[in-house]
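Q: What structure does this chain adopt?
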Amino acid sequence: RDRQVVASRGCWCGPPPAGPGIDMASSSSAARGSDSAHVPMRAPQIEIEEVKESTIRFVLSGTDMSVANALRRTMIAETPCLAIDDVEIEDNTSPLHDEFLAHRLGLIPLRFTDPEADITSVFAMDDPDAEDVDEVLLVLDVHNDASPKRIVTSRDLEVIPLADHHTMVEVAHAASMEEAAELAAIGAPEDGAGGPEADAESAIAIVKLGPWQRVRLRAHAKLGWGKIHARFIPVCTAIMNYDYEVDINSAAMERLGAEDRRAFVEACEPGLFEFVHDGETVRVADVTRMANHMEVERLASTMSATDAPLVRVTRRPGRFRFEVETTGALSAVQVVRGALGALIGKLDSIRQAVAAAAGTGVGVVDEDDDVAGGGAAFASAEAGGAAYGGMGH
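A:
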């Protein structure tokens, strides 16, 4: 199987490419030998369950743990985003040291407002180790004139465009427009008046200034990868878990008293089990709520009145659940699409290197065409809630 993965296409979207591209069956068979032609090719699918601006939930099926975990790690470490990387402190009389200010500034998400643009091409940053980088300048200058307290927030950061594409960079005060609206509603005073205090509730706080204190600085943002520094990680969480099936042992459950049944339901994750209308019968409410299957199995065994456990938990083979939440620097869809594109490029590089070393001249697929196809298929699945298919190895 390992030879199959190396010799064949890292990822593709839709049916295997035809014509002058690469014939997956013939080329992979040639690379592995005719005796391996009967090894079946896997065809992973992505089923989108929920997608919002900053969150997405989907099921990856038809593959194994190595590929699923590779996708999760790529979303964290290999999807590029903008972040403040260097800070020049000109004046700081705030309670925080310069290093604390720089650290907090580096965690403020910066958003590129064109969602369709290839950000690595825009900033000419295809190489994470490149020395000549395109940097975005931001300035912050806040002086508290005798007020009891002045909260410096992300709204006080101003982008100074040094190039045309810098005008498309903005500070993300929240992870999504929905969250921004909620924060604005919380910060709005009852009389409808605005002001710094109201803005502080709808933005990211940096530091609090006392009377006559000041912060003045210049910050330089650049494109980076999470593997370089945590400030470039575009996700808050990227959780992957097995997809489970939970079967209730009705006979064992009926042997329990009503109080014991209720104690079992309450001991498990909230929302995993529920009672039907009669208030006595337990059923599975939402299997996706199960975060610790071993604890559920332990409770099912220890609380059972018989030798049989109350429930049986089994993994659904080849199915993995993902929950992704972004920082606001990228949308959830951009993170997943970017991770898929990065995986395609990495697996292509390996395949081409192996082919070159073996002297076989295995056909090469245009990476840009395939990535674009992947993006289109993912966008179609996002719009219709359908499966994103054909992501084979």
